[in-house]
Each structure stands twice: as structure tokens, then as C-alpha cells.
Design brief:
Elements: H1 2-40, E1 47-51, H2 53-56, H3 67-72, H4 74-80, E2 84-87, H5 114-126, E3 130-136, H6 145-150, E4 182-185, E5 188-191, H7 206-222, E6 226-230, H8 246-264, E7 271-274, H9 280-283, E8 293-294, H10 297-309, H11 315-330, E9 337-339, H12 348-351, H13 356-368, E10 372-376, H14 398-405, H15 411-424, H16 426-430, E11 432-435, E12 443-450, E13 453-460, E14 466-469, E15 481-486, E16 492-494, E17 497-500, E18 504-510
Parallel strand pairs: 1-2, 1-10, 2-3, 3-6, 6-7, 7-8, 9-10
Antiparallel strand pairs: 4-5, 11-12, 12-13, 13-18, 14-17, 15-18, 16-17
Helix pairs in contact: 7-8, 10-13, 13-15
The chain binds calcium ion (2 copies).
One calcium ion binds next to loops.
Length: 511
């Protein structure tokens, strides 16, 4: 009996000692992770965040998101590791979305004042967060004073700022985006490829070109870091079939080169990302002296499909092919702009039918592949929304953010980890990508390289744990590898064999 009691005491002591040791090691590891993160805090994650301003955060209780609301959430974005913000249009406009501007030099009263704007720029820059604005050059609102003047009569000086039909025009032509291209006012018919409320500007008119350069410089002088250029290919691509006329694309690129050159005179490092909603072969020419980036619409679809199907493909080879082409046309000077969805597309979580595991894998793929990543507000908490457009732009539910903040395995905390990984391992943020085939049907794998540092990234897309042996190839020496970043406990690398729990991501590098 006494022996048994003694045994029990010794056993209990051993259990306490063992668990304190485990706890201590765990705490030590957490502290090391915190120190590692603290040291990397001011690095650039190369992740931007798209804010639909009216829906993001309302600072004054009128139910409309505003600039002071963004200021109030800068620390939230900084904590996530975001290094830049793209704001949808903030100018006066009759619509809720703002893509039909009536004054390019002012702030919409719903969003605040010019002082609020200047404060936002200052507060963002203080946190190493860049700000880019949305600039709509293809068209204005039909209520813009320029158009009000232009429509007043054929001899008005602003008449030629827009595009008017003559006797030779086929006024029944279909616009490049579908729908009617030509619309009537009492003095004639004008081009409006996005509808009658948005008359197309005539960029052949040198006064219009000069005006948009003046507008962009005005905001650069206020401190913005660059622009997202709306409908960039539609400046000249107006009608159905224009995309088959090479001279149309050439005129687009020539205009945007002129625009860039004029902006560089006041801000040599201006960042320009164009909305060229098309294949990489169409985006390529814009990267030759016009834009730094084009949004990679094609990749977005592929990443969502990968996560959804749980079937691995050689995504690295597909990305590499595009990047080799972009490097060739841009002289090596391009930044791929990657994303999962934006304000014009069904939200990722809806495309993934509410599957949080798939949403986590789509994020992990996006944030470990090359490029400047653009997250659409709410993606990090799994907001849902399918068209019509209003449903893609609903108010950010901040109570849900608070809930996920306190849940270690939430989608929000997953996003935070991944964005911050790009600071811890700059090859994830700035490196090139190469294939590393394992032949495993559920595991996507690739190499990222930056300044001589090579990382091996592995994603288990499936709901089953997977084990696989890693081979030495493509300048990867398997026996020298160690796990440097892991999205889940249980990721191990022992004797050439890596263990990946369901829906997990591991980053390995040479010890
Ligand atoms: Ca408000
Ligand atoms: Ca146009």
C-alpha cells in the first residue's frame, strides 16, 4: 500500500515536471516566435488591401464608411502586416460606388474632408502603409460639369472632350463590355460603354490628356503613392471587336506610357497598377514602360479552383511562364498583382461555398506565391457575397472581426500568420518561383528564391494527413532542410520525410 502511494507521488511529480518542461519549451518557442516577428515588423510584406470605402468603417455613425474610419482601422491593418491600401474612388459622385466622378479634385462629403484625407495619408505613412487611389480615366459621370457643358451644343469648347457619333457611326454597335455603346441627348449621340451615366472621354484630345496628368499630379503632391487605373484597356477599346485590332491596344499603351512619364517627373517611384481585365498576353505590353503591375485575373481563378478541387497542379510552372514573359517585355521591371477576388467578383468564400478549409488553402497559395498580393476587405474573415454588385460590397462586420480575433484557428488569424510570414521570409514576398514536383496528387509544392535564399513551400490541399519523401533536386538538398514556417501543429520533417496534417502549409529551408 505504502509502495503504491510512493509510486503515485513519484509518478505525479514526474508528470508535473514533464508538463512544466513541455509548457516551458512551448512558452520559450512562443517567445522566440514573438521576438522573430518583432524584428521583422517593419519589413515590407508586399501585401495591399483593397478598401471599398463606403463599406469599410463608419467613424461618425451616419451608416457610411469614411476616411476617418480607415484611419481608425490602420492599426488593425498594420497588425495584419499589410503594407499598402487601395481605396476605391473617394471623389464626389452620384452613385454609391463612385466610379462615375463629378469632381476629380475633391473628396466626397460622405467620406470626409481634404483635411481628413491628408491626415489619412500621414497616419498611414507613419505606419509604413502606402496609399493608392482609384483613378477613372475612361469616363466621367454624365453630371460632371465637363459633360454638362459638352452636351449643351456642338460648338461648346468641351464638346470634343467626349466622343460623339457622326453620320458614319453605327449607333446600334455593341460596347466592348456588352450592351449599348451610344446614348442620346438632345444635341447628339455620345459614347458611353459602361452605360448612359458614364460618357467616355476622348483621350485623343490633348486637353483631356493634360487634365488627367494634372489630376494625378495633384494627388501625388498630396502624398499618395500611386494609382489603380480603372478600365485601363477601355480608354480606346470601346466597341465589341476592338480587342482584335492591334492598333487599339497600341494606342492604350502609348497613352499610359505618356501618363507614367509625366508622373515620374514629380514622383519617380510612383506605383501604377492597371485594371486590364484580360489574359497575361494582353497585359504584357502595358508592363513595358506604362504600368508596374496588371491584376492577374487568370491566376485568381486557378488558385480558387486548386483549393476547391483539392487536386495538385504544377501552378509554379504556370506562374513562371507568365513571369518569364513579363520579364522579357518589361526588361525585368514588373510586379505581378495577384488576388483572389475584388469588388467586381463574387467573393472568394462564396465561390468556395462557405468551406473555411478551402478558404484557408486559397489564402495560403496566394500568400506564398510571387507578386504584390491584393486582399479584398472582408476576405480575411470569410465575408460572403454573390452578384449583383451591391452584395460584393456589404459593410464590414466588425463584431465578426472581434470574434475571430479571439479564436486562434480563425480564418482571420490564419491570414495574419500568412501575411506576416512574408515579412519573416522575404523570399515569400519578393522571390521568384520554380517548380518542385513531388508527383503527389494532393500536395502542391514549389521553390521560392530571393537573393540566394531558397525556400521549399508545400501545401496539403486535402482533408487527409499526407506524408511524402523529399528528393534532392533543383538546388534543394533534402537532408539539409528544416521546417521554418508551419501553418499547423503536427508538421514534421524527419529523415527526408515530411508530414503534413490535413489542409496545412509548410515552408522549409536549408538549416
Ligand atoms: Ca460615416
Ligand atoms: Ca473608352
Amino acid at each position: 500500500m505504502r509502495k503504491l502511494r510512493l509510486f503515485a507521488i513519484v509518478f505525479a511529480a514526474a508528470v508535473i515536471l514533464f508538463s512544466s518542461a513541455v509548457l516551458w519549451i512551448g512558452m520559450r518557442q512562443q517567445q522566440l516566435d514573438r521576438e522573430r516577428m518583432e524584428a521583422a515588423r517593419d519589413r515590407d510584406s508586399n501585401v495591399f488591401y483593397e478598401i471599398f470605402v463606403r463599406a469599410f468603417h463608419d467613424s461618425d455613425g451616419d451608416g457610411k464608411g469614411d476616411l476617418n474610419g480607415i484611419v481608425a482601422k490602420l492599426d488593425y491593418l498594420r497588425e495584419m502586416g499589410v503594407s499598402g491600401i487601395w481605396m476605391t474612388p473617394i471623389h464626389p459622385s452620384p452613385s454609391y460606388h463612385g466610379y462615375d466622378v463629378t469632381d476629380y479634385y475633391a473628396i466626397h462629403p460622405d467620406f470626409g474632408t481634404m483635411e481628413d484625407f491628408e491626415r489619412l495619408i500621414g497616419e498611414a505613412h507613419r505606419r509604413n502603409i502606402k496609399i493608392i487611389m482609384d483613378l477613372v480615366v475612361n469616363h466621367t459621370s454624365n453630371r460632371h460639369p465637363w459633360f454638362v457643358e459638352a452636351r449643351s451644343g456642338a460648338d461648346n469648347p468641351k464638346r470634343d472632350w467626349y466622343i460623339w457619333a457622326d453620320e458614319a457611326t453605327n449607333v446600334n454597335a455593341t460596347s466592348a463590355i456588352g450592351g449599348k455603346a451610344w446614348h442620346s441627348v438632345s444635341t447628339g449621340r455620345y459614347l458611353g460603354i459602361f452605360g448612359e451615366g458614364m460618357p467616355d472621354l476622348n483621350l485623343d484630345n490633348p486637353e483631356v490628356r493634360a487634365e488627367f496628368i494634372r489630376i494625378a499630379r495633384f494627388w501625388l503632391e498630396k502624398g499618395v503613392d500611386g494609382f489603380r487605373l480603372d478600365a485601363a484597356k477601355h480608354v480606346y477599346e470601346d466597341l465589341q471587336g476592338d480587342n482584335r485590332r492591334p492598333e487599339v491596344a497600341e494606342k492604350n499603351v502609348a497613352w499610359w506610357r505618356e501618363f507614367r512619364a509625366a508622373l515620374e517627373e514629380v514622383k519617380p517611384d510612383v506605383y501604377l497598377v492597371g485594371e486590364v481585365w484580360d489574359a497575361p498576353s494582353v497585359i504584357g505590353p502595358y508592363l513595358d514602360g506604362a504600368f508596374d503591375s496588371g491584376f492577374n485575373f487568370e491566376l485568381a481563378g486557378k488558385l480558387i479552383q486548386l483549393a476547391k478541387s483539392e487536386r495538385a497542379t504544377d501552378i509554379a510552372a504556370a506562374v513562371r511562364r507568365i513571369h518569364d514573359y513579363y520579364a522579357e517585355v518589361s526588361g525585368g521591371r514588373f510586379i505581378d498583382a495577384t488576388f483572389l477576388s475584388n469588388h467586381d467578383q463574387n467573393r472568394v468564400m462564396s465561390q468556395l461555398e462557405g468551406n473555411v478549409d478551402h478558404a484557408k488553402m486559397a489564402a495560403a497559395l496566394l500568400l506564398t506565391l510571387p507578386g504584390r498580393v491584393f486582399l479584398y476587405y472582408g476576405e480575411e474573415i470569410g465575408m460572403e457575397g454573390v452578384k449583383p454588385d451591391e452584395n460584393l460590397r456589404r459593410p464590414m462586420p466588425w463584431d465578426e472581426v472581434d470574434r475571430q480575433h479571439n479564436e486562434p484557428d480563425s480564418l482571420l488569424n490564419h491570414y495574419r500568420r500568412l501575411v506576416n510570414w512574408r515579412k519573416l521570409e522575404p523570399a515569400l514576398a519578393f522571390g521568384t518561383v520554380e517548380s518542385y514536383a513531388t508527383g503527389h496528387r494532393s500536395v502542391v509544392s514549389y521553390i521560392r528564391e530571393h537573393e540566394g535564399e531558397r525556400l521549399l513551400v508545400l501545401h496539403n490541399l486535402s482533408g487527409e494527413p499526407q506524408q511524402l519523401a523529399l528528393e534532392s533536386k533543383a538546388d534543394i538538398e533534402a537532408e539539409k532542410l528544416a521546417v521554418t514556417l508551419a501553418s499547423a501543429p503536427g508538421i514534421k520533417f524527419e529523415r527526408d520525410e515530411v508530414s503534413l496534417p490535413a489542409y496545412s502549409t509548410a515552408v522549409l529551408k536549408a538549416k
